[in-house]
Amino acid sequence: MAAETTALALAALLQAAQICAVAIATNRDAGVKWNAGPRDTQPEFAEVTGRWRRAMQNHFEGLILFTIAVVVVVTGDATSPVTVFCSWLYLLARLLYVPAYVLGWSPWRSVIWAVGFFATMVMIVTGLL
After folding, report:
1. In this entry, which stretches build a coiled coil (predicted)?
2. Angle at which helices 47-75 and 3-30 pack, to 10 degrees?
């Protein structure tokens, strides 16, 4: 398996862990009945729960682009030391982004996000060249 694909698989596991963390926080704030129901109403969440939820949503958005980057690089036979480095850099950035968001590390949260985004864009451009 290509290193980029391994990083993608680990990023997916990180997303699954975030989903679990959000479920626990949401159950704590809104209760299991609300979380298991149709969610027709929006309860008030604790500040930290809101951060968990937004960090998870942000990773969904980033994971889409990173998946595209990995597909472009791997299927285009464009893997290189640069794309390997960028894939691990993306994963490291996402690992750091979660506590940065949840703990409110400003402006570091945005800097960490930018590192992951830039690494993804470098992979896509490298795959196109």
Report:
1. none
2. 160
Q: What pTM, to 2 d.p., does this model score?
A: 0.91
Pick from 78, 80, 98, 88: nearest CA to 120: 88
Q: Please choose, from the candidates 75, 116, 117, 111, the residue with its C-alpha nearest in 3D space to the C-alpha of residue 92.
A: 116
- What does the pLDDT profile of the chain (129 residues) look like in tens digits? 899 999 999 999 999 999 999 999 988 888 787 777 787 788 888 899 899 999 999 999 999 999 999 999 999 999 999 999 999 999 999 999 999 999 999 999 999 999 999 999 999 999 998
The domain spans of the chain are 3-30+45-128
CATH fold for the domain made of 3-30+45-128: Four Helix Bundle (Hemerythrin (Met), subunit A) (1.20.120)
